[in-house]
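Workshop exercise sheet. Pairs work together: one partner reads the sequence aloud, the other fills in the structure field after running the prediction. Swap roles for the next sheet.
Pair: D.N. / O.F.
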Amino acid sequence: MSLNEEVELLRNIPLFARIEPSKLKLLAFTSERLSYQRGQDLCVQGEDGDSAYIIIEGTAEVIVNTQTGPLTVAGMKKNDVVGEIAILCDVPRTATVRATSDLTALRISKDLFFRLVTEFPQMAVEIMRVLAGRLNTTTAQLMQARAKH
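Structure field:
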């Protein structure tokens, strides 16, 4: 994929939609393109979070280790961002992200991610929307689980 194709791909992701093309070129150039096979982990719960990932192609599941064993809490697909909680909160990874198909992702370093959020407040707003949506889903799942017991 060419640099211009990666820029176009990034432009289609809501998180980056309002960022000017020259900055998207920098992002595409400085991020690392990685390929995963089905069953491979992008990141593992408990590890240090040094980057976020944007899924370019493929699907993944988000798995949390619990006292009763691993629990799949979400599915991820093309254009989804994963791994940002660990770098935003400076905490170990909160979950494992595992490819459920062959998957291609862009790895964005912690430093670059923070630079983008600082330069583009709209990106911070989009991140808050994504995280608020995840929190809402998690809260609903917890309420359903409690109702069953």
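Discussion prompt: The CA atoms of residues 55 and 79 lie 5 Å apart. What would you look at next?
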